[in-house]
Amino acid sequence: MNAEIRPVKTAAEIGLADLFAAARSDLPGGSSTEAVRSDAFDRFAAQGLPHSRVEAWKYTDLRRLVRDAKPLASRPDAAAKSAAGGAGAVFAGLDVRRLMIVDGAFVPELSDLAALEAGVAIRATVEALGAEEMPLPFGMAGTDPVAALNTALAGDGVVITVAADVVVERPIHLVFVTTSAAPAAMFTRSRLELGSRASLTLVETHEGPDRSDYQVNAALQVDVGDKASLDHIKITGEGAAALHVATLEASVGAGANYREFGFTTGGAVVRNQLFLRIAGQGTVANVHQASLLSGRQHVDTTLVIDHAAAGSQSREVFKAVVDDEARAVFQGRITVQPGAQQTDARMMARALLLSDEAVANCKPELEIFADDVQCGHGTTTGALDDQLKFYLMARGIPEKEAEALLIQAFVGEVIDAVVRDDLREALSQTMFAWLKGRE
Amino acid sequence: MTALLEIRGLKAEIDGRQILNGLDLTVNKGEIHAIMGPNGAGKSTLSYVLSGKPGYEITGGEVFFNGEDLLAMGPDERAAKGLFLAFQYPLEIPGVATLTFLRTALNAQRKKRGEEELSSPDVLKRVRELAKQLSIDPEMLKRPLNVGFSGGEKKRNETLQMALLEPKLCVLDETDSGLDIDALRIVADGVNRLRAADRGMIVITHYQRLLDYIVPDVVHVLSAGRIVKTGGKELALELEATGYAQYQSEAA
Q: Would the ipTM clear 0.85, i.e. be above it?
C-alpha cells in the first residue's frame, strides 16, 4: 500500500474523530469489540473520507460531498416511535414480518416478533454485541474506509439467524426509518446467517424526512449456507437531502441460490457497495439494480464479486434512469480466482439519460485468473429512442405517457428478476409513482 | 361537404433536402386513394408528414383534416382525431407487452376525445375478437410489441391496431412490403373489413399487386414530391405495364 500523506483534515473528518472519541465508551460491545472498533477507526483515520483519487471511489468524492459530521442520533423517544409507524409503506398490505429500526435503533415493541418460525432467531445488534456474540470485522470490505467507519461506530441493527433446513415463507422486512427533523448520523450494522438448505426473503427499506440532511451508514453482513436460497431486496428511498452509504458483504456457500435486488429512488448522495464472495461450487448469484434519479441526486452502485470457487454462475444487471442534473455511477468488478474454473459471469450496465445534463459513469472490470471461464461485460448509455417514442405517439399516446411506457420497459427487465409476485408488484408501483412524479 | 383530408401545395424537407414539392390531394369519406410512385418520390415522407413525425420541416402549404389544421397538432393529437399510419416498418419495443400497448393507446385516444376509458377485460375482449379475424395467435398479445414477430406478424399487428382504434383516415405505407401472398391476403382482408362510408384510406405502394386486394377508387402517381397523374384503378395496371420512367422524366 502506498501511504498517502494527508496533512489537512476536512471538517467532516475532524468531526468524525470527535464523534468517535466521545461515543466510543458508550458503544455496545465488550473489550474485544472495543479493540476491533479502535482498529477500524484508525484504518479510517489513516485514509480519511474517500475521494476521487481513490479508484474504488473515483466518481463519488465523499471528501467533497460530505461537508460535516452529524451528531449520533439519540435513541428514539415516544414521539419518534409514533412518527415511525407509517414507514415501509411500499410493502404495506403484504404479509411480511416487519422489524423496525428507528433512527438507527431496533425497536422490538414496534416490530412483529410474534409466532417466530421454529429455527428463526431475531435480536438486536446491541444485544448480540453486548454478549460478545457478533463479530464486527469485515472480510472483503475490510479495507474500505466507509465500512471501517461503520465498524468503528456501529450502534444497533438486527441479527437474524435461520437454522439449517428451515424454509421461511413469510418475508422479513427491515424497515429503516429516520424520524428526527434535526440532522443526525446513524451507523447501523445488521447480520443474517442463513443455514444450509434454508430459505428466506429479506426486504429492506430506507427512508426519512426530505428536509433533513441526515447521514446513514448502514451495513449488512450475510452468510448464505450451502444449498440455501436467499432473496434480498433493498429499496433506498431516503429523504431528498440525505446521505446514505451502505455496505453489503455476503459470502455464499456451495450450490446456493442468491438473488440480490436493489432499487434506489431517494437520497441526495447514495453509495450502495456490495461485496459478494462466491465461496462454494455450483452457486447461482444474480444481482439486479435499478436507480431512478432526478434533481441533483448522485447515486453510486459499486459491486465487487469474487468467484472463489469453481462452476458458479453470476449475472449482474444494472439499470439507471437519470433525469435533470442527476448522476448515476456504476462500478462493477468481477474477479475469478485461479481455482474457479467453469465460472460463468456476465455483467451489463445500462443507463437511460432523460436530460442533457444527466450523467452516467460506468466502469466495469474483469480480473480473471482462471483459464476456463466465460465472462463478459457491457455498458450502454443513451437517450430515449425518438423513433420508438414517435411510434407510440402515432397511436395516440401523449409524449409523457409514451416516455413513461419506454422507461417502464427499460426498468421492467430488472424488476422482472424479483421472483415473488407480491414484491414485484409493489416494486412496479414504486416505479409508477416515480414516473407519475415526472408528469 | 368538408373533405376528410385536404392537402394544398404541401412542401416539406428533411435535413435541408426538399422532398414534397407542392403536393395537392383531396380524400373524401368513403374513398380509397392509392398513391403509387418510384422510389424516392416522397411516398413515405407524405405518410410521415401527415402523422407528424419529428424531423420534417414544412416549408409551404396547408393540410386540413375534417376542416381542422392538421399540421398544428402533435402526433398523438392527430391519432386521437382519427388519423392512423400503418408503418412500413413497425417498430419493436422490448418490455412493452402488445396488449398493454393496445390498451394504453386506445384509452389515451378515448381520454383525449372525452370518452370513457375501457376496462382491461373490455379491451381484451375486443382485441381477442380482432386477433381471431386476423389469425393472430392470442399468445402473441402477451409478447413484447413486435419483438421477434415475423414481417407478416408485424403487418397483421398493424392491421389489428388499426381495427381496434377505428380511425377516420387510414394511411397504409407500403403495407405489402415483406409479405408473402398468404399474409398479404390476410392483411388485405383486414383492411377491406374497415372500408366504411365514413372512413377514408390512403394506400401507398410501389407495386400494383396490393391493389388487386385493396381496390382503390382513385390512383395517383407521385413523382418528385408532387402528384403528377390521377386516374381510376386502371391507372395502376397501366403503371405495372409501363413502369414509372415516363413520370420520372416528366418531373425532371
A: yes
